[in-house]
Design brief:
eight-stranded antiparallel beta sheet, binds fe (ii) ion, single chain, alpha+beta, Naphthalene 1,2-dioxygenase Alpha Subunit, Chain A, domain 1
Amino acid sequence: MLPENDSDGYHLGFVHLALFKTIRTQYRRVVGDEKTIRAVVRDWGHGHIEIDWSPGYEGPFEWLGGASGSGVDDYVAALERRDGAEAARRRIVEGPAHALIFPNLFLGETNVAIVQPVSVEECVHWHTPIFLKGAPQFNSRLLRMSEAGMGPASFLMPDDLIVARRNQAGLQASLAEWIELSRGLNREYVDAEGRGVSHVTDETTNRALWRHYRQVMVEA
Ligand SMILES: [Fe+2]
């Protein structure tokens, strides 16, 4: 359930609305009228799934709280020297990945998390912020961003965990035999690289995760 939550683009605009109304975050791009939201989800195959916010970004470092100043200028200059102007521009606009490496490694943009199963109904969501090698000027920002989003005293994960608790209770229901994961089936498509792609609010990621889970469990 937690890997699904980490890779779900539908719930953000509802479950985390209190946070988005309180502070400026990049996730405001996925709130509001569905037709105006440009982020996408992708099924990379083998259970690996991704949310790509970048089609909705309009400027550099939206994924880093809109960071600016001389420390940022130094970082951009160093990136350009290393990777060239075009690659550097792409990196600072698109930001790091928001992806699940099947089954339990979550690349959460500026955080990395591991889901460790403990029992059928219990798991631990370990997480840590990332720091950029050679760019210590971002360390405190990255740490503060992580504290704001991850962990039981943050402003993001507690919302998710309340919903997870209710989902877990719902799974005890004996009358509902199936959970339907059909959102976006009508507009999902396969791109030139063979990846399933759809609107960020679609259940493409959920379907991809469980399809592969079933495959590996049947083969086991
Ligand atoms: Fe969430």
